[in-house]
Amino acid sequence: MEQEFESNEIIDRLPAHLKQFIKPQNYEDYTAVNQAVWRYVMRKNVDYLSKVAHSSYLEGLRQTGISIDHIPNMYGMNRILKEIGWAAVAVDGFIPPAAFMEFQAYNVLVIASDIRQLDHIEYTPAPDIIHEGAGHAPIIANPEYAEYLRRFGEIGCKAISSAKDYEIYEAIRHLSIIKEAEDTPDEEIAVAEKRVDELQNDLREQSEMAQIRNLHWWTVEYGLIGTVEDPRIYGAGLLSSIGESAWCMTDKVKKLPYSIEAAQQEFDITKPQPQLYVTPDFAHLSMVLEEFANKMALRVGGLEGIKKLINSKNVGTIELSTGLQISGDFTRVIEHEGNPVYFQTTGETALANRDKELVGHGIENHPDGFGSPVGKLKGINLAIEDMSPRDLRAYDIYEGLKVAFEFEGGVVVKGEIITGTRNLQGKIILISLKDCTVTYKEEVLFKPEWGKYDMAVGKEVVSAFAGPADWHSFDMITHKTSSTTIKSKKTPEKQELESLYESVRNIREGKNTKFSLEAAFDILKKHHPKDWLLSVEIFELAHDKDERLASEVLEHLEKVRAQRPEVAHLIDGGISLIKPDFVAG
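The line above is the sequence of Aromatic amino acid hydroxylase; the predicted structure tokens follow.
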């Protein structure tokens, strides 16, 4: 795979199936308007969040190299993040939840490198660099929270999805893209919103991935910390939204103690959240995560675990009590008295032990699926895996001998033993037979003419999880999105406005510019009378140096306020940063 991004030792550790999501940041693509949006949000946030955010926030900005004045350069961030054992990579908008979480497991922050439009400065449903860089990054400087995030990723990427989850991901990704794009017809947005609503209101049982995604939302994205009566903000969605960070602290938003019940609470990314959860401390987050993990198929296994994998219609893995792992698309399970007694995959399947593919048991050896009984032999209390060499000999489980294994639940395996494969502890994990027939009641599950039969050994299924045991077993470089983020159109009018923003930025930074502040303001008034943010920036620079120009700018902003009441509070917010005693006329 051609590498188009700057790497480091943390990013180098990422497997290829995650690297496929990474894209170059292309820092030069950010316009002066983009930089002004970043600066406005950061100045407002730091001013307000210093009063209401968790104490880690301001220190975290410094530790992670997040500047108030400039959109962060990923490579610069990585040099600083490395000191706390993390890294950051750029991606295109939303990526699948399992991939997002697995990045976290590798201590890598996923940052959508696009930035919201000026018209969406308070909030955007699309992930952007303000949300990811200014929201997620600062809090990971807190070691306890950083470990929670890593552990969440480690557990979350094993959660089993459903077909519905992928539909929701695609629908939300599409909605976030068209809502952030310019000139999207209202009707198109309404159709996309209706589709998301329909999927989210679908009453089918929530998958593990849906539930853990809810926990992620109510903690990592929209979490509060402290007490219900006096909460502080730590969730990235709140830290990056100048509108919702203020809204969430009012009585209009219900505050609930954080518990595992949050796994059942769905969310809507397009609207402010009606309720939020408050954790007493970061340690409590990890306690709830472990409580949830204890209920996952990852730790429970069993019949339910296999059924979840069948419903997922994706590659998943079961692990038997011997440590043998079977990875593939599970399509069938035969049960007896609440336990699985036979499982079947369809298509490419690989066998592994300790997350490493067994030699001779990759997808080229099992291209058409794999089926095996599981459990104990009928009438024998000792499971095959627990038998000593003497026990195995006593039961004629020996190379070159013909054998008939009759399992509890009715599956029968007859054939001649070729060999057995053992794990490091000496337990037999696989028995290979020739001239083999496998039956269940009257049904033939395997015929001698199909070749060698590999029978998995294990008295129970101890784990079931999403994805393969060994990622090298399958071709995972297949990600294709149905949509990509839509770039802003470059009209002559927009280019002129960007040039004015660039000139004012240069004046602030003491660089040469073809415009004076006054000239830039004159062109702005004449040709871009509805723009408000550049006027605020000009006012900031003129405030202590040019009283006449500052008065003119304020007068102009009063007109913009009257013409565009929807941005009046943003104008007031910007001026109050410069002039705290400002009262709008």
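Note on the example: The chain has a mean pLDDT of 90. The chain has 22 helices and 17 strands.
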